[in-house]
Amino acid sequence: MDTITIVIVDDHPIFRQGVINTISIEPDLNVVADTDNGDEALNIIRKHKPDVVIMDVNLPGMNGQQVTRQIVSEKLPTRVVLLTAYDDVEQIIHSMRSGAAAYCAKHVKPESLVGIVRQVALGKYVIGTEVPLIRSPRYIEELPEMTLNMTLLNDSSAVQFSIAPSIAPIVASTSNTSDTL
């Protein structure tokens, strides 16, 4: 199993250390650096080129979405997991438009965050189940014109689905059933 390299970015030291502690106990995950602001985060990401960055949306200097846009613009290999205290649809849309691979609220369970990081490292897009995107299909047309393969994680299973903005409703599938959400 390959090791997934990770950078952690959050301006709250106690939260940042909690994420570091959560990630560090996993044998396949390696925190290579951490910081408390967006400007330094971008420099660290350029230097280390981690597989994944776990980053707060609201940061001093460049915010998480601005850093994400820059990562995408520079074609850096790093995939972004954005964390936020605000789990509203508009933040999801802005985060996904910026190029984030995942978006979840900061009240995510540690084991779920670990799963999200692994999914993102595999090339998937993840939105935490506590985010109301699938219950608000009117916002789908506001997403970028592309199909996104996403995973919704909850306590008992992962649900795979694709979003095609020109196609509604969103169709979800699990390993044993297909449902329209």
Summarize the structure.
The chain has a domain at 4-128: 3-Layer(aba) Sandwich (Rossmann fold), CATH 3.40.50.2300.
Written description of the protein model:
The protein has helices at 13-24, 38-48, 64-73, 89-98, 110-121; strands at 4-9, 29-35, 52-56, 79-84, 102-105, 125-127, 148-153, 158-163, 171-173, 178-180. With 181 residues, it is an alpha/beta fold. It has a domain at 4-128: Response regulator (Rossmann fold, 3-Layer(aba) Sandwich). It is globular and about 35 Å long. The termini are far apart. Residues 129-181 have low confidence and may be disordered.
Topology:
Layout: E1 4-9, H1 13-24, E2 29-35, H2 38-48, E3 52-56, H3 64-73, E4 79-84, H4 89-98, E5 102-105, H5 110-121, E6 125-127, E7 148-153, E8 158-163, E9 171-173, E10 178-180
Parallel strand pairs: 1-2, 1-3, 3-4, 4-5, 5-6, 6-7
Antiparallel strand pairs: 7-8, 8-9, 9-10
Helix pairs in contact: 2-3
